[in-house]
Amino acid sequence: MELVRREEPQLREVVWFAVRCRALTLLLQASLLPPALFNLLIPDHAADAFSPPRLSEPGPWDVLVEWLLGGLSHWDAEHFLFIAEHGYLYEHNCAFLPLYPLSLGAVARGALWPLQRLLRLRSRLLLGAVLLNSLFSTLAAAALYELGCVVLRRRRVAFLAALLFSLSPANVFMAAAYSESMFAFLAFGAMWQLEKGQSWLSGLLFSLASGARANGLINAGFFLYSRAKRFALQLQVGSGSVRKLPLLWKQVLSLASSALLMCAGIFLPFVLFQYYAYLRFCGPGTGLDQTIPKPLLQLARDKGYHPAAVDGVKPPWCSQGVPMVYSYIQDIYWNVGFLRYFELKQIPNFVLALPVTLLVLWAAWTYISTNPWYCLTLGLGRTKSEEEGKPRDGFCCPAAFVYVVHATALLAFGFSCMHVQVLTRFLGSSSPILYWFPAHLLQEHEPLLWSAGTDNPPFGKPVLGKSGSCGKGTPENPIVRLLLNWRLMTPLSKSILGFFLCYWVLGLILHCNFLPWT
């Protein structure tokens, strides 16, 4: 994909801002501050999390890498690094899909192979995770900008949203050895390609996304909706003329077959991984207990982990009608299920998820109240402005309908069935709405952004500030402008940027010190 084009100064600024934000994240995590100061002020929490033993003694360079980047290897990152190094040895490792650890292994054993004399594999995997996630988060910001330009048709709002992505409340998970950055790039890139009409490339990216995170399966809805929308528009365009029934059925079969084919491609990586897990954990005993290093086998005994096919004992899910390891692990190991998290002791976690919950609900309400009839027809009809050839632009445009539905569905599922504190990163890596709607609010209600060169400032409002660009075609960064004029901002703008920045910083401090975060 051509993500950085010379004729797009705003896109260049999106990329450079993403690079600078990622560098600042790594600097704060790896500089003298977190290891020396944060660990003194907030000692590492003794979490009962997955922490496998190291099988080799670290060298001096390994100690340096761990000291600088070790904060990015906590919590679920340990699973990804372990899988990349040892494969799927334990049953509960199968909750983490293979694309990201495979990519880590390829980078550590390939691109970073020359460093093997200095760094053991674990250190190269951690370094590879930092490099990969820096790349993917930058590409995701660029893809989000391009997607916003196509869907919203307001370049300034798309610009703001892409800049906000680099200040994402889920920032620490975009930097740590998690699959969020990879998934965001694949999902946003696939959405962009689908909007451009590149169905096959979009299907490939969506398919890869479902190999990185299980919620990628929901993205099949974008294909189903695009085909339903196309068919509905064809019916409306031809409603005034006599249509031949055979031709109509041919169109129905063509659209249905292409949609099913694409959806099958999206589901394929997930299904193949379930089959792989079945062969690995439910197949006949292969003496794997002889090949598992003794420290890892001892860890399994101490913690009650279930290695693959040890002593021929098969886990209970192997005998289910549809043996699916992923749902079994979520149920047994993490107690994920409908309303299971609704307990008094989880109130702090619900408070942690409250800002992103309110933001998505506000976005959905704003869209529905602006387009009530369009929403009632599921976006399959044509608005009056579309019939006149002048469709509404901005956040409330018709093209944004499917993205609002997607975000609302993710919110409903996450709030009712998941550990609710993960909603911030769950939505932050999956839905453009988390960035489009705040950008819409800032553009509509912040006078500091009503400058020459912005998209459609509210009618009758004064035009303040400098030009929308500065110096030799380089666009002024509106987020930087707002931060430099914090005291002049409206309370709404302070609330939005305060949420993004507080979660950006607090997540970095708490996660890197092994304290629970989103």
From TrEMBL:
GO cellular component, one term: mannosyltransferase complex
InterPro entries, alphabetized: PIG-V/Gpi18
Keywords: Endoplasmic reticulum, Glycosyltransferase, GPI-anchor biosynthesis, Membrane, Transferase, Transmembrane, Transmembrane helix
Top-rank lineage group of the source organism: Eukaryota
Predominant localisation class: endoplasmic reticulum
Keyword Endoplasmic reticulum: yes
GO biological process annotation, one example: GPI anchor biosynthetic process
Enzyme Commission numbers on file: 2.4.1.-
Pathway: Glycolipid biosynthesis; glycosylphosphatidylinositol-anchor biosynthesis
Membrane topology: Multi-pass membrane protein
Compartments in which it is found: Endoplasmic reticulum membrane
Pfam families: Mannosyl_trans2 (PF04188)
Transmembrane domains' residue ranges: 125-145, 157-179, 252-273, 350-368, 400-420, 496-517
GO molecular function: alpha-1,6-mannosyltransferase activity; GPI mannosyltransferase activity
Role, per record: Mannosyltransferase involved in glycosylphosphatidylinositol-anchor biosynthesis.
Family: Belongs to the PIGV family.
UniProt name for this protein: GPI mannosyltransferase 2
